[in-house]
Design brief:
Layout lengths: L2 H16 L5 H34 L1 H29 L3 H23 L1 H29 L7 H19 L5 H28 L2
Helix pairs in contact: 2-3, 2-7, 3-4, 3-5, 3-7, 4-5, 5-6, 5-7
Length: 204
């Protein structure tokens, strides 16, 4: 490498340092951008907390809402899959994509037409998810070589498997409310996290 190339690299490095986090102007601009977003994060966090509480207090209604949302997402996904296929797709995969798009739409329509059966099916899928998630977490925990890195993944895995067992044990009687309750709890804690982040950004 020539001396000229070294000098150019050195100059570029100096420019990057000047534009780095130590530059006061850069830091002030970054703070202003983060503060501008803080209000929206705080508002969204509060909204999520409220929705989470409502879902937890009215789990039956929340479960039905989740089922309807999943149904419409499947229908929309199926329509977009078909549009993508007809606009241009490889000949070898076109038929498969058409079948997938139609299947998404059919399942979505069935969920809307048969909400009770749809809720029961989604509940079983949720139980299966918890089983798989828990087993994977336990495998990660036992294979971890990080000192002290096994405890929390193992606890998470046991809790996930435990939730799966609870859902299956109460099926189908608990199917009417379990989805809504879990979504409510998830929204509540996610909202708390987002709201606290918004408050911290406002304090910058």
């Amino acid at each position: 490498m020539t001396i000229l190339s070294h000098s150019r690299l050195t100059q570029a490095g100096c420019d990057m340092v000047n534009l780095g986090p130590n530059n006061e102007k850069f830091r002030e601009q970054a703070k202003e951008i983060l503060k501008a977003k803080a209000g929206w994060m705080l508002a969204l966090g509060i909204a999520m907390v409220i929705l989470g509480l409502l879902a937890a207090l009215m789990p039956h209604l929340a479960t039905l809402a989740v089922e309807v949302v999943v149904a419409y997402l499947l229908i929309i996904g199926g329509i977009f899959t078909l549009i993508k296929t007809f606009r241009g797709s490889e000949e070898g995969t076109k038929l498969m994509e058409v079948v997938m798009g139609l299947l998404y739409i059919a399942v979505g329509v069935l969920l809307i037409m048969q909400p009770v059966e749809g809720i029961e099916a989604l509940t079983l899928l949720l139980a299966a998810y918890f089983f798989v998630d828990g087993i994977l977490r336990l495998v990660i925990a036992f294979r971890s070589s990080v000192p002290g890195g096994r405890f929390w993944p193992a606890i998470g895995g046991i809790c996930s498997v435990g939730l799966g067992v609870i859902i299956v044990a109460g099926y189908p009687f608990d199917a009417a409310w379990v989805l809504g309750l879990l979504v409510g709890i998830n929204l509540f804690f996610a909202g708390l996290g987002m709201a606290s982040m918004g408050i911290k950004l406002k304090q910058l």
